[in-house]
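User: Structure please.
Assistant: Input sequence and predicted structure:
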Amino acid sequence: MKKTITICFTNNKGGSGKSTTCGNIGAAMARSGHKVLLIDGDMQMNLSLSFFPEDKVLEMSEGKNNLYYAVTGQKDLTSYIVRTSYENLDMIPSSSRMSSVEAELSRGRNREFILRKCLSGVKESGEYDYILIDAPPTLGNWVMNILCASDYVMVPVEASPWGMFGLANMFDFLNEAKEISPSLEILGIVVTKADLRKGYFKQTLETLKEMEGIYLFDSYIRVDSAVEWAQDNSAPVVEYKRSCRSAKEYIKLAEEVTERAGR
């Protein structure tokens, strides 16, 4: 049976492009023939909104077929999977109720491994090549759960003056996660929202390249209005406008990710 590879996307700074990167890598993987499950772990539900219209996302959020009810009830996630309109691409949607999951998890035994337990049936089925999880911009019990359920972690970093603010804290937290779940590996950092005309893009790259033992993806994602138009139409840009610059960059990044993750 093939091994399902789980990758989470995390950064404790909001606005880093986590949801957009997670969704577009997943869509690019699916388009290339991989079977992909996306999991929206953020109460803001941006990943869910990237694939479903707002009224559908609110309906799923207010109902019981979402990640919040699965995790707090410690249920097998298999029955919470929702089909997207794209071949090979499924999702477990989020809920605004995820705002309280932190407190609920703090009361449980083996609380760092609740999501891993909920995911075990999906992973053991071999149905998916990849599971991609979008984590919220926090450092706490829930993000630790996501990390402990993952094989790899990717850190999107915005190419801006404040883009790397708090990155040291992020990596300290990742080291804590590796102590709890030694199999977790840092896949690398990807630079997002890059504007090559501005000096801090080059400065960001130079600073990240100096980080010892951390891979910096060759692919980076430039600022592109097509991404916003795609979001407005509840679609990943690799499907909304495949010919645009950012779509090509996400496709190239997805190829680099699959190569590094060993599939």
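The beta strands are 5-9, 36-40, 82-83, 89-92, 130-134, 152-158, 185-192.
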